[in-house]
Write a structure and sequence with these properties.
Elements (H helix, E strand, L loop, with lengths): L2 H11 L6 H12 L1 H20 L9 H11 L10 H44 L5 H63 L2 E6 L10 E7 L4 E7 L8 E8 L7 E6 L7 E5 L10 E8 L9 E5 L2
Antiparallel strand pairs: 1-2, 2-3, 3-6, 4-5, 4-7, 7-8
Helix pairs in contact: 1-2, 1-3, 2-3, 3-5
Length: 305
């Protein structure tokens, strides 16, 4: 801070500034917070000092002496007053000024305290008093709500964990099932690869069966097959069609059962020989007695080449 403004602040506290000096100090206070604080502190200190200085009463003959000096100098007594008189007048004026300033500051301080107290009372009246019991109840209510939320969260988390565990078990079961089905599929593929199917289309040299059709699909590994007949004439009364398997290792054809046609002379059915035969075989269809015979007796109408 500029020393010049410190001096002006001191003179201002004694109410000895005026004109340009007063305006310079006022202008500097606008932008200098530190200067404003210094001025306030000096004014407060001046007021407190004024309270400590007892009022000085001028002597009874001072006024007469001053008037006599003025009359003797023809109205201009300024230069004729003694040094002691000037100092006495200056001291009395300074004391009077300090007294007036301190009284003014004290009154302002009292007014400020009164306004401050009134403001506090107004604020206290506007803000309702808080009941400690109510605050405690509100705190407990918030704690209970927090506990409730936490309990609900833990319950949902437990349910979610249970569901996750259930899904994991299902996933494990599904994976096991997939592994099983994959193994079964591979086994079926292997069986299909190993299977030896024989397909035979038989033609008849008998006139009545020239338009008839016969096909056989034979699975030698499993020892069974499928026979398909179409456009077959009805068997005579007391007769049945019987399928035979001709196996080179067998002395006689092996019976594969009686074949029963529908009303249109067609049939598609699975057959199996009464005894095991080789994987490669020939087939024949004959007309036998009703119910079939263990050994071929009747006419053969179809035979494999």
């Amino acid at each position: 801070m500029d020393e010049r403004y410190e001096e002006l602040a001191a003179l201002n506290a004694l109410r000895m500034l005026e004109g340009e000096e007063q305006r310079a100090l006022d202008g500097a206070c606008v932008s200098d917070k530190e200067l404003r604080t210094l001025i306030a502190e000096l004014e407060e200190a001046t007021a407190e000092l004024a309270l400590l200085v007892p009022p000085a009463e001028p002597s009874a003959g001072l006024k007469k002496h001053i008037r006599a000096q003025i009359r003797s100098k023809g109205g201009t007594a300024t230069f004729g007053i003694s040094r002691g008189a000037i100092l006495g007048i200056a001291g009395w004026a300074l004391a009077a000024g300090l007294a007036v300033s301190s009284i003014w500051l004290w009154n302002e301080r009292s007014k400020f305290i009164e306004r401050h107290d009134s403001a506090l009372k107004a604020i206290a009246a506007a803000i309702p008093a808080t009941d400690p019991t109510e605050e405690k109840k509100e705190t407990l209510s918030l704690e209970d709500e927090l506990k409730s939320i936490r309990a609900a969260y833990e319950k949902k988390q437990a349910a979610l964990n249970t569901e996750i565990e259930s899904l994991r078990q299902r996933e494990t079961e599904a994976n096991n099932r997939i592994t099983q089905l994959t193994a079964e599929t591979e086994a079926l593929k292997k069986q299909d690869a190993e299977a030896q199917f024989q397909i035979a289309s038989l033609q008849s040299e008998v006139w009545e069966y020239r338009r008839s059709e016969m096909e056989v699909v034979w699975d030698g590994r499993r020892g069974q097959g499928v026979i398909m007949l179409d456009k077959m004439p009805r068997a005579e009364s007391g007769k049945d069609y019987q399928l035979w398997i001709v196996d080179p290792s067998q002395p006689d054809p092996v019976s594969a059962g009686v074949i029963t046609l529908d009303d249109k002379g067609s049939v598609k059915t699975v057959f199996k020989p009464v005894v095991p035969v080789g994987e490669t075989a020939r087939f024949a269809l004959s007309v036998e007695k009703k119910g079939g015979v263990p050994k071929k007796e009747g006419q053969i109408v179809f035979i494999s080449p």
